[in-house]
Amino acid sequence: MQINLITGISGSGKSVALRAFEDAGYDCVDNLPVSLLENLVSTLESEKCEQVAVAIDARRGESIVNLPLILESLRRQHEVRVIFLNASTETLVQRFSETRRRHPLSDNANNPQSATLIEAIDRERNLLEPLKDQAHSIDTSNLPAHTLRSWIHDLLKDKPLGLTVIFESFGFKKGIPSEADLVFDVRCLPNPHYDKELQPLSGNDKPVIEFLEKIPEVASMESDIIQFIEKWLPHYIAQGRSYLTIAIGCTGGQHRSVYLVNRISEYFHSQKKLAELQINFLDRHRELDSIPVKAV
């Protein structure tokens, strides 16, 4: 059975992610107590269920500390993937303020006084910290709901076993993705933004591609990043990691970083020897993916 555990900080988009799994045909369970996870899996297994997505958070407090051991036990018989959704504290405070919802840890049974929102968020981060090491993390601070759904759908196309490497372009002016394991800063390269004809385009467009292809420093940066990844990728595999996020950033996340993510991703997709090692590659563009889709 393929078990997908959706967890993370309250307000970071777990409901949106769970609906994306539901739309993809998965059996979905929201807000499941940790103690019932193994029973649920046994029940679904007896019903010949092949794919399930379960959302679990820290609202029941200390019981969440048992989850890593439960997942370890489940991995002996099933394929288990953990998706950890996160967001900056500033973003979370704004979301709770807009929706006027209470944080699930605001009321602490051990404390007669209600915790402030920031205290509740900090406590939840501490409780969930052990899960982050074995999870695919997604920072939703700058992601609209439709982008998160799209990224989940892309993830579902990925094979659950082996190492998944995500190449992500981003703009420094909106912050570094918190889920990034490696970050490459390409702001030192010539910027197509200052060409009026190229400014409204992106690194996906032919005129921008042709512009950047003519610059030796861009080719040199691409080669250096590829060599670095090729050298250190075996070490990440040896660690037994499931996900590795490589973020490439320029100022706005529109031209240079997009171009390089496409080029580097294309290179690694073409390496047949890596496919034999069960390494899967995904690419995504945070700023471009966040642009609302226009109705036709």
What does this structure look like?
The chain is built from 11 helices and 9 strands. By secondary structure, the chain is α/β, with parallel strands linked by helices. The protein folds into 2 domains: 2-156, P-loop containing nucleotide triphosphate hydrolases (Rossmann fold), CATH 3.40.50; 163-289, no CATH class. The strands form 2 sheets. A 5-stranded parallel β-sheet has the order 2-3-1-4-5. Strands 7-8-6-9 form a 4-stranded parallel β-sheet, with helices on both faces. Helix 1 (14-23) packs across helix 6 (145-156) and helix 8 (216-238) crosses helix 9. The protein is globular, with a radius of gyration of 21 Å. The mean pLDDT is 88.
Name of the CATH architecture of the largest domain: 3-Layer(aba) Sandwich
> How many helical elements?
11
CATH H level of the largest domain: which superfamily?
P-loop containing nucleotide triphosphate hydrolases
Shape from CA axes?
globular
What is the CATH topology of the largest domain?
A: Rossmann fold
